[in-house]
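Schema walk-through. Below, the input block comes first and the output block second. Nothing else is stored per chain. Lengths vary across the set, and this one has 144 residues.
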Amino acid sequence: MKPLLLVVAPYYQAISEMLVSGATRAIYAAERTAEMIAVPGALEIAGAIAMAAKSERYAAYVALGCVIRGETTHYEIVSNESARALQDLAIHKHLPIGNGILTVESMAQATARADTTQGDKGGEAAKAALRMLAIAHVFGLEHS
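--- output ---
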């Protein structure tokens, strides 16, 4: 059985660690395994998933990171384009992907969403990837 790949942008390390913790817990609870790779930022997550998909080594993908609004329009670009790129991969390459890239206003919001005892968005993203993998099997798209 192929592992899932966690693609993590660890710019906010404490947030990333919580997201990874939640995701790995959900994956192990589903009796699956995971590998992890770090990328420079949220915009690079989709590119790494595209490269990994070419290897056919992974069953599904979990995108994990955090974008906190700042004083410029950079937040909108990163938030929108990272989500769009993941959707493009899911739609055009038929990849099972769970999107756990947080887009928030503050570190407090990020913490509340990433913490495994509160929002557990990492766990939710892993569960979404696993569910999309199950749906792929329904349609005969083998990722295993």
